Amino acid sequence: TKKNTKAAKKEPENDEEISDEIVSPKKKTAKQVNGSAEKKKLLNSTESDYNIDFNIKKDFATKIVTWNVAGARSCLQKGLVEYLRRENADIICLNEVKIGSEKEIPKELKIPEYYHYFNIGKGNPGVAIFTKKKPIKVTNDLPEIFTNDNRLITAEYEDFYLVSCYVVNAGQGLKTLDKRLEWNRVFDKYIQELDKEKPVIIAGDLNVSHNEIDLANPKSNQRSAGFTKEERDGFTKLLSYGFIDTFRELYPKQEGAYTFWSYRFNARAKNTGWRLDYFVVSERFMENVVDNVIRTNILGSDHCPLVLFLN
Amino acid sequence: TKKNTKAAKKEPENDEEISDEIVSPKKKTAKQVNGSAEKKKLLNSTESDYNIDFNIKKDFATKIVTWNVAGARSCLQKGLVEYLRRENADIICLNEVKIGSEKEIPKELKIPEYYHYFNIGKGNPGVAIFTKKKPIKVTNDLPEIFTNDNRLITAEYEDFYLVSCYVVNAGQGLKTLDKRLEWNRVFDKYIQELDKEKPVIIAGDLNVSHNEIDLANPKSNQRSAGFTKEERDGFTKLLSYGFIDTFRELYPKQEGAYTFWSYRFNARAKNTGWRLDYFVVSERFMENVVDNVIRTNILGSDHCPLVLFLN
DNA sequence: CATGTTAAG
DNA sequence: CTTAGCATG
Fold first, then answer.
1. pTM of the model
2. CA distance linking residue B82 with residue B100, whole number of Å
3. Which residues in chain A are closer than 8 Å to B78, comparing Cβ atoms?
């Protein structure tokens, strides 16, 4: 095992130089200046974040990051690329990129050293995978249904399938709970099919907090999207097919560990959050999992990134 | 003739103190304004703007300002109130305030010392009049048609009617030219009715450049909204009923005098503008007009303010 | 290119 | 509260 010391790859899709600048100072109007001042002071880092793996004691060979960026173009202005460069993961899974077409993808997002796969479409959440190693195969969305939802990318590697996804949100007043449950059925079936061939790593925003420990206000959210019995049971069912929620496996009693905080009500400062983003892996793959870290203080979205360390 | 030396009014709708920092509550003559050393430097002012009436040689009793603010809440962030306090007009006409309801009006907009009249509605341009002297009567919109368009306010004073309006834009591809021409018909009729009783001052964005001298690129805009033959003839027709375009009357040969510049193409820096905003007055009232100044370097909107000085 | 609006989260 | 989309200018 080595400590993330891969040789520099040749640039696969982009021949730009990597800029030393932190943020390219895009011209702004007077009104934007206020906002940008806050963004500018490296937006999403603290000193302790700088050595980003300072708390990872064990060796690891592979690092995977997943982040619901809630609009990649906005997140870009808040330091997305600088964070990703610092994280230097082998595989980057982004969701809710909210980019409607290929030609709207800012070129800065296509970080050199990575192959870039986007599954995007107008009005849809959109997901992306950036990967240093070229996958054997990459496919978009589910095979039967929701095939134009731009919610899921499957990347097949030598030793596993990586399924990065943004699961259907049950919506205000649970108005899309039915669609969500239909998604669960098709998704579970799809995952099980993959699992017959190779271990599966599911990464992304599963839009559910599994248990009371996974959100700040379980009592008042019994009928809120993300904590209904139906959604929670759906997550239990997924695990029952032979999968493990890596974070909870590693930190079974850890309270206050969330990955999402509403932009409203100053929720992040008060840590009134939800754990909605996960790495879920095939049981037999758990032995390869070294750690799963929630990057709580990386800003730029209403979600924070999660990192999975593999040996 | 007095020099803008009205007795201090009692505060009509708001009991806040008027800050000495911005404008002394005591009225000043134009000369005193010139001599006073105000400290607050505004985002949208230049040194020569600071003594805002420096170029008005004659005495005046009344000052009226009209400004298409292109969103009053945005303009507020860019110094709208500071400018208005500095201008210290007797009557302020704002259009395109783009505020959908009374409760969305920021309280800072309700400048003490003025009575405030808003004609606003969801999705409509919206207009407002602030006035130090309470009008005899204030009415909204045209009497027959477009009565819910929130485009026009009529304030009746002792000596004149003031009609502040935002005229229908003929639209991209002239798709609302018909509506515009229908507006012209009803508007002309309305103005003529008022003119039978008292002189009329029309103030606002008339959404037309009358002649080639009134825009930077007349040749290429023959079929653009604001410079079609139909709209130009409409303006000629309005004048034919006995009205005068005060700016052109005072400065018949002045080129490059515009009141609007597209936000696009760096138009303002290049002065590729249009004269779309006017004071148009009854012929018999012209003797009361001292000057009409275009405040070219007041920023905050894609239009600039216009000031009418009356004796 | 900017504003306010909407729908989604 | 924030984003991206849209319609209007």
1. 0.80
2. 23
3. 30-31
